[in-house]
Amino acid sequence: MRILIHDRNEEFSQAMAGTFDQVIYADGKYAPCQGCFHCWTKSPAACEMKDALQEICRVIGQADDLTIITENWYGGYSPAVKNLLDRSIGTSTPMSTYRGWEMHHTLRYGKHHQWRVVVYGDTTDGEKKTWALTAKKNAINDGFQQSEVRFVTDINELEANAL
């Protein structure tokens, strides 16, 4: 399953709908993660908060290819995308294991293929290095075998078939 998470707008969601199995617009209207860890223990992979992100762990857990389109915010995800990713912690379990010679939580959904991040906006060379490391570590944490980061200066030039 190919999933797209983005922070653009509803029109962008509609334009990308034919290219991805599911398109999730991080519009910033979701409640932030409360850190209760119920998605780990009490109701595995389901958030206790009753909003559109209640099942985000299961959605991301089923992704073979995950593409994230985000504005660069000081070398990190936009607040709306970061909030959505924070709410997906239930894709793993509270138990730990070694992956890539590092300690990580065990995966609830197994391995996936590609974690891709498309970053738009002004980005310095230092931020590009940070992005490469962030994408690599996020991919390992969520069980993706590959990670990729692309930088675009004008998001309007991004075509659906290029993703």
> What is the 3D form?
globular
* Main sheet overview: 5 strands, parallel
Amount of helix? 10-25%
The helix count comes to: 4
Trace the largest sheet across and list its strands.
Answer: 2-1-3-6-7
Structural class: alpha/beta
State the fourth-level CATH superfamily.
Answer: Flavodoxin domain
Q: What is the CATH C-level name?
A: Alpha Beta
What is the CATH fold-level name?
Rossmann fold
Strand residues, percent: 25-35%
Low-confidence stretches are none
List SSEs in N-to-C order.
EHEHEHEEEHE
User: What is the CATH architecture descriptor?
Assistant: 3-Layer(aba) Sandwich
Distance from N terminus to C terminus (CA atoms, Å) equals 14 Å
Average the pLDDT over all residues and give the rounded result: 91
How many extended strands? 7
Question: What does this 3D model show about the protein?
Answer:
The chain is α/β, with parallel strands linked by helices. It has one domain (2-162): Flavodoxin domain (Rossmann fold, 3-Layer(aba) Sandwich). Helices cover 23% and strands 29% of the residues. The chain is built from 4 helices and 7 strands. It has helices spanning 10-16, 56-61, 79-86, 125-141; strands at residues 2-6, 22-25, 65-71, 92-99, 102-107, 112-120, 144-152. The strands form 2 sheets. It has a 5-stranded parallel sheet with strand order 2-1-3-6-7, with helices on both faces. The protein has a two-stranded antiparallel sheet with strand order 4-5. Helix 1 (10-16) links the parallel strand 1 and strand 2. The longest helix has 17 residues, at 125-141. The chain is globular and about 45 Å long. The chain starts with a strand and ends in an 11-residue tail after the last strand. The mean pLDDT is 91.
